[in-house]
Design goal:
mainly alpha; about 65% helix
Length: about 220
């Protein structure tokens, strides 16, 4: 049997349950023994299913490890409602979503780097889309147009969707929006890497990022 086609409009309840079981067991092993301890054999023992069954749903153990790491984004998704709500000014939404994202990313730098910037993630960007087909994001009060951004599997496209409404209402041109996104992304990635190397604290990194983001936006937005 081939891997499940996550692009199908309707995954059966049984298939969803099986995928959730495998992912939850992988997370259990990760949390108790560390990521390096995750093997097909251990996942098989945890689920009490034949190891061959795993390959009916996932390409390999790395596929499962990626899914297991995706819960690092749960706190960000849940926290968005505390930063933005439906009807907020689009420029405020752009800035506040970035601040919320940076806060949670800097708290879990290894996971966020792995999900968005690792070589593996760049080779398999569609894993994010697949994950949210099984574990959909719930809108708990943030602007509805952010839903597309949250489930997009490419980081640059995420930023494009995040700033799109600010372009539509006239805060930026396509050109200045691209520059805002580029500079914010480069600064964010640099600070995330500095945290991973323990060259800066997460608190100092967040303070710097928010300061730089405000400078970038204020400089490039239409007056």
């Amino acid at each position: 049997m081939r891997n499940i086609d996550f692009n199908k409009k309707h995954l059966s309840p049984h298939r969803r349950n099986m995928i959730e079981l495998f992912v939850n067991c992988t997370r259990k092993i990760k949390n108790e023994e560390g990521e390096k301890a995750i093997t097909i054999k251990k996942i098989s023992e945890c689920t009490e299913l034949n190891s061959a069954t795993i390959y009916n749903y996932f390409e390999n153990v790395e596929h499962l490890v990626f899914f297991a790491n995706m819960d690092a984004l749960d706190s960000f998704n849940a926290d968005l409602k505390n930063y933005v709500t439906e009807g907020d000014d689009p420029l405020k939404v752009y800035i506040e979503v970035w601040k919320c994202f940076a806060k949670h990313a800097f708290n879990k730098p290894e996971e966020y780097h792995y999900i968005f910037f690792s070589e593996f993630a760049k080779e398999k960007p569609y894993y994010i889309y697949q994950y949210y087909k099984i574990f959909p994001v719930e809108n708990n009060g943030f602007p509805a147009y952010l839903m597309k951004m949250l489930t997009t599997d490419n980081f640059i496209e995420r930023l494009d969707k995040q700033i799109a409404v600010s372009i539509n209402v006239g805060y930026f041109t396509d050109y200045t929006a691209e520059k805002v996104n580029d500079m914010a992304r480069y600064i964010f990635e640099g600070l995330l890497e500095d945290i991973r190397k323990e060259e800066i604290s997460k608190e100092e990194a967040l303070e710097k990022f928010e300061e730089y983001l405000n400078i970038i936006v204020d400089t490039l937005k239409k007056k």
